[in-house]
Amino acid sequence: MFLLKSVFHSALSLAVAYAASLNQVTNFGDNPGSTNMYIYVPDSLPTNPAVIVALHPCGGSGPEYFSLYDYHTPADQHGYILIYPSATRDSNCFDAYTAASLTHNGGSDSLSIVNMVKYAISTYGADASKIYVTGSSSGAIMTNVLVGAYPDIFAAGSAFSGMPYACLFGAGGASPGNTNQSCAQGQIKKSGAQWASFVHNGYPGYTGLYPRLQVWHGTADTLIVYALLGQEINEWTAVMGLSFTTNETNTPLPNYTKMIYGNGNQFQAFSAQGVGHFVPTDVDTVLDWFGITGTLPTSSTSISKTTSRTQLPTTSTTAISGCVVAEYGQCGGIGYAGCSTCAPSYTCEQLNDYYFQCL
């Protein structure tokens, strides 16, 4: 019996010793953002694995985000590498406001994260065509930054409760305590062409494809207000030359609306009714979008660098006189026959053909 116990404990110790874990890497290369790197590498790694970069919210860390959402169990099953950067400045918020971070090879946190990716490619033979990024809140804002400034590095992104690329430019800080709340409170509104020009300026001369992108936002978010979803839509549909196609209600969860643009392979937006800050990450949907568990698009959407947008068709709705729509309420759209007048200080803005909202 003693021998059997000894063998059992030895086998258990061996299993624990060789089980994959999250480890810090300190020698990944140039680190202009003083950003810490944590990596999870499955014990069984296929040739040329994919890489997912997962970005924490303000005040968090890579290890905390690793514990919050379980990307590592599917990593063991499907054989992809996980990178968890940790911001160390500005209340542990990622730099999405300086010209350095917003510019391709400009420096700061964005370049540090890209160098982490390059480390994984060189060290583990990761597939450079299968690099993905996702994040929540500050991590979602940085997801937008990386998709805009480094479209040559990332193949796809999924951003939960973020804001458009360059929306924080010049804000002077990225933390919730920053006195400049113009972007977070939805006071910065631009056309698709204006947003697209910011993205193009982040990597001048780039003519290739931009990464496929999902953006998610809760209608009850007061920290990064829901209006920012509309601005993200304006930005990326203009960059990608896409127009609205259709809505899918109660997708992927009840009270969520999935908004599809183009053929749905390049850009999607999700509105979470009644959800605050931040929208819980739907790991299954993200992995499907990245092609880890789903099927990658068979054809690429060409990217137009024009600054013009296709005009969406006008809606034919019958307004009900004498009623007023509160902030974030629906005020128009194809087939809508409710109130169309927004409360004072709000305007009826078009998110897509089927949904106008008082913002």
From TrEMBL:
One Pfam family here: Esterase_PHB
Signal peptide interval: 1-19
Keyword Protease applies: no
A Gene Ontology molecular function term of the record: cellulose binding
Function: Esterase involved in the hydrolysis of xylan, a major structural heterogeneous polysaccharide found in plant biomass representing the second most abundant polysaccharide in the biosphere, after cellulose.
NCBIfam families: esterase_phb
Protein name: Carboxylic ester hydrolase
Species annotation: Oidiodendron maius (strain Zn)
